[in-house]
Amino acid sequence: MNVPAAVIYIDDPADPRLEPYVAVRERDLVGRRGEFIAEGEVVLRVLLGGGARCRATSLLVAEKRLSKLAEIAPNLPPDLPVYVANQAVMDAVVGFPIHRGLLAHGLRPDDPGTAALVAGLPPRALVLALFGIANHDNMGGLFRNAAAFGVDAVLIDPSCCDPLYRKAIRVSVGASLKVPFARLGEGDDVLTLLARAGFEALALSPAGAEPLSQLQRPSRAAVLLGAEGPGLPPALLAHTRTVSIPMAPGWDSLNVAAASAVVLHQLTA
User: Fold this and answer.
1) Would 168 disulfide with which of 61, 91, 139, 202, CB 3.0-4.6 Å?
2) Strand, coil or helix: what is 29?
3) What is the CATH number of the domain that holds 134?
4) SS3 annotation, 149-216
5) Does 46 share its domain with 30?
6) SS3 9
7) Are residues 71 and 159 in the same domain?
8) How many Cα neighbours within 13 Å face the side chain of 90?
9) Are residues 89 and 202 both part of a single domain?
10) Considering the domain boundaries, does residue 1 fall inside one?
11) Residue 2 lies in a domain
12) Pairing outcome for strands 35-39 and 102-107
């Protein structure tokens, strides 16, 4: 078995080198600012396999999973610390039974700013703009769909949850580590920002005036999605082209991640 060069075996849960991994759930709740924790084989393949916008600073691996790490990331940087512990030590560090046995601590990229991100996109581009998405499962699903359908960038408003929260990363199967995103500031006029960059805003709503099946995609399109229940802010709906997904009688909407898949497929087919 070829193991990474920087393997460091640890048998003490209080070892200070494992500090970034201590009490993972509790620290996730208060936010990690410029850091994140990635979890599981699929996500680590994305993080360590090239193309991710984020970089790992260390790994924590259950001893029984070391051979799997060598398989999914055979060319790790020689200076990347790989901490290896038995399952009991690993569980004690993270604060719960971590059955996947593969964790990474990383640093997120600098937020490029929404204006700079949008302005730098290619002539034909697709943007996803999210408002009020507070559920990490939905956020992860939205980023997974964004990656699957070739979305060039995601904009998130100030009330959205963090796409680099551990659960959101996991549900996105690592897509939130790859798809460029930026957070809008309080009071930012997203419609003006998009218009200046030549994007047409398409607001998804059950009451949308235009059925999705009749939509002709603009070269630069921005799909606006709101949280389930409240949907998009009325001010946005009043000043955008509104689009609906036709439903069977008695039903008016889909889960927001499912709705995004339908819309993005239509726009990229």
Assistant:
1) 139
2) helix
3) 3.40.1280.10
4) CCCCEEEECCCCCCCCCHHHHHHCCCHHHCCCEEECCCCCCHHHHHHHCCCEEEEECCCCCEEHHHCC
5) yes
6) strand
7) no
8) 23
9) no
10) no
11) no
12) antiparallel
Last residue of a domain, one of 61, 78, 107: 107
Phi first, then psi: give them for residue 226, nearest 5 degrees.
-115, 175
Q: Which residues have C-beta within 8 Å of that of residue 96, sequence separation ≥ 6?
A: 24, 25
Residues 173 and 231 in one domain: yes
Whether 11 contacts 85, CB under 8 Å: yes
118, 187 in Cβ contact below 8 A?
no
With contact defined as beta carbons under 8 Å apart, do 9 and 85 qualify? Answer: yes
Domain that holds residue 102: 7-107
* 44: its two tokens: 């680590």
pTM over 0.85: yes
Say if CB 256 and CB 231 are below 8 A apart: no
Q: How confident is the model over 182-224, as pLDDT tens digits?
A: 999 998 999 999 999 999 999 999 989 999 999 889 999 999 9
CATH of the domain at 46: 3.30.1330.30
Residues 137-158 pLDDT 10s: 999 999 999 999 999 999 999 9
